[in-house]
Design goal:
about 55% helix; single chain; alpha+beta; 3 strands
Length: about 100
């Protein structure tokens, strides 16, 4: 059970992505410097153990843009990289 409390679930357009609490903290620290991300930070700050973080389309786009700006080498830990990939899939669900 304690491990479950160390996880944050993010609903990305119906896809649930699990990140660690440490991943969440990294996101909060980095998003403090990204313009227009206050509502996203507030969602992650208010997260509980039972409900996933819910982001609307605009918030998903802003979060993706912020993570794009980080560059691939900074998309660590793995949970943040998985979140970034889910955001890309949500923005372009049929890349064919």
């Amino acid at each position: 059970m304690p491990e479950r409390l160390d996880r944050v679930h993010v609903n990305v357009a119906g896809e649930i992505v699990e990140i660690t609490w440490d991943d969440r903290d990294v996101l909060l620290e980095e998003l403090a410097f990204a313009e227009g991300t206050k509502p996203i930070r507030e969602r992650f700050e208010a997260v509980g153990a039972s409900q996933p973080v819910e982001l609307d389309a605009e918030q998903r786009a802003r979060l993706r843009a912020a993570l794009d700006d980080w560059g691939e080498d900074r998309l660590q830990p793995d949970g943040i990289a998985r979140l970034h990939e889910a955001l890309k899939r949500a923005a372009d669900p049929d890349p064919a």
